[in-house]
Amino acid sequence: MGLSRPTLAALCLVLLHAFAHAQSSASPLRVFLFAGQSNMVGADTDPELAESYPPYAGITKPRADVRYAFSVGRSTSDGFVPLAPVDADFGPELTFAREVAKSTKGKFAILKCAVGGTTIARDWNPDAPDDGQKLYPRFVQLVRDSLARLDRAGVAWRLEALFWHQGENDMLSREFNPEYEAGFTRFLARLRSDLGAPELPVFLGEVSDRGIWGMDFRGPMRALRAQQRAVADADPHAQFVATSHLAFEVMGSGQPHYHFGTLGQLQHGEAYAEAYLRSIGLDPAPEIPGYPKKLPFRDGQRVRVFALLGQRSMEGEGTFVQELSKAQRKPRPSVPFRYHVGGGARVSADWTPLAPAGLFDGFGPELGFGTALDGEPIAIVKFTDGAAQITDWAVEHADASRPCRDDAIAFLRTALDDLTSRGLEPELAGIVWHHGENERYYAPFRNRYAEILRGVIADFRTALDAPELPWILAGISTKAPWGAESIAQANGELRALADSDAHIRFVDTSDLPHGRAMPGSEGTWELGRLLGESCARTEDGRPDRRRD
Questions:
Q1: What is the dihedral of CA 33, 37, 41, 44, to 10 degrees?
Q2: Which of 153, 179, 523, 528 suits a disulfide with 513, CB 3.0-4.6 Å?
Q3: Helices 93-103 & 261-279, crossing angle to 10 degrees?
């Protein structure tokens, strides 16, 4: 089958771009532009905490191989300096530089202009209204001055791309929100013109649903995101970069934050690097090996299938495979695994042996769960979205913003149908649910959580034609930072829900280890083990109905 003309043209562009990058010895210095507001500045980041995360050890050490010039908040560099945090904050530039340097040849520079609490309507408006901070001319001056320094040093350069993260303040204004698409389009056109780069690639970062805005400002958030996507769709040199699968800061009070925070910013840079590398024909995503021949079951064998569904803790936010033992992270070919995580940020193409397959070197409870049930003929299907709330799992709910319900049911059906097509007899043995972190903050959802969840359970049973489908509900740890009263309310309602239905089980997680904000690596492993043990069969071969 031949390629369509648009597809062929796009393929040619990627190949040409990749060929150009391969000529590293003759390539000019690549200059990357970073701009935006507080989530580009790197507000609420901690370099010491960054160094404590195993995948990011050494990330905050100055890099003399990357030229860095900045105007961040009230700080401005005197020309180029080695890449490093500024005023104890850092944005996506640190991990972006690491990943790009790891995957490409040739040196590059980063120019960053970012100020928190700013708008495209005023502060970044090229026409510089009097009530704005006049950031557009500041940004252009930073770029021009930096490029002039390279010229004086005899360094050949090319503007490579702009990475933009901004929009929260425009989103919150009824006056500014409807004008975001027009305002950002105007900003891009003027910037490309003023810099003499009419085809400058632009990577437009999504305003994350995982932060506070995605919980109690869902309508304005949807409107802003639609405009961000519209800009990317209309501009052949722009692309939308999803960020709602990245970690997001949680304050000690249990309230979600306005900012990615330390771990989120480290992942933020990786997300931009992945998008950029793919645009030049490189794909840094790890390959997860599947089964070379057939699944580890006899023809016609009955296989119990467990679906692991949920949000941040089920996804595995704040976990690191480096903190597992070799035995814990070793693949288990006896347990087929299929996954759709991060709201679709990573999706398995087929069954794979159970092994760490999470986002950013993370993992979820599936590893401990599979270990607890290893030896039984089981398969695990995982569907998670850490940016979702309970309304996103409900059928046609007015407050839904993310398509969890439809996508999860379709993904689970596909997995079951695939097992049937392989000559097996799949039995949907249960849905294991870990819920509710985001709802603990937002009272309108928190106070209706059990009511909505009951409807979700009934709807999934109907959609999957399984009226007695077991649901295993994991309680929220009392060590979590969501407030004792809120956690007690959630766990009490879940216990009551289980008491009202013979096919619902509540699993108490209060005794499990817990990390700074999420269960962490040890807590997530133990959570999976506990949930797996609750689904084990008794000696007479029937499911164990005990409530832990």
A1: -160
A2: 523
A3: 40
Instruction: Kindly state the DSSP code that residue 76 receives in the 8-state scheme.
Output: E
Please tell me the distance from the alpha carbon of residue 380 to that of residue 369, in angstroms, as a whole number: 9
In this structure, what token pair is assigned to residue 378?
């089981």
Nearest in space to 86 (alpha carbons), one of 48, 41, 51, 52: 41
How far apart (Å, rounded) are the C-alpha atoms in residues 368 and 350? 21
Give me the helices (H) in 330-431, please: 366-373, 404-421
CA distance 287 to 348: 10
Q: What is the 3-state secondary structure (H, E, C) of 10-44?
A: HHHHHHHHHHHHHCHHHCCEEEEEEEECHHHHCCC
C-alpha pair distances (Å), 288 with each of 156, 285, 357? 40, 9, 7
d(CA 283, CA 73): 34
Residue range 422-472, pLDDT digits in tens: 999 999 999 999 977 788 888 888 899 999 999 999 999 999 999 999 999
3-class secondary-structure state, position 315: helix
Q: Which residues of 352-383 are buried (b: 16+ CB within 10 A; e: fewer)?
A: bbbbbbbbbbbbbbbbbbbbbbeebbbbbbbb
Domains along the chain with CATH numbers: 28-279 (3.40.50.1110), 302-534 (3.40.50.1110)
Q: Looking at residue 469, what DSSP letter applies?
A: -
Hey, is 341 helix, strand or coil? strand
Strands 202-205 and 157-165, by their bridges, are: parallel
Give the distance from CA 307 to its chain's centroid: 20
In angstroms, the CA 152 to CA 79 distance is: 12
Contact in structure between 433 and 310 (CB atoms under 8 Å): yes
| CA dist., res. 183 & res. 191, Å (int) | 12
d(CA 281, CA 176): 37
Residue 14: is it exposed, middle or buried by C-beta count within 10 angstroms (0-12/13-18/19+)? middle
Which secondary structure element, helix H or strand E, spans residue 49, and what is its range? helix 47-52
Q: Can you tell me the distance from the alpha carbon of 158 to that of 77, in angstroms, rounded to the nearest whole number?
A: 21
Beta-strand relationship, 157-165 and 29-36: parallel
92 phi/psi in degrees, rounded to 5: -75, -5
pLDDT digits (tens, 9 = 90+) for 314-351: 999 999 999 999 999 999 999 999 999 999 999 998 99
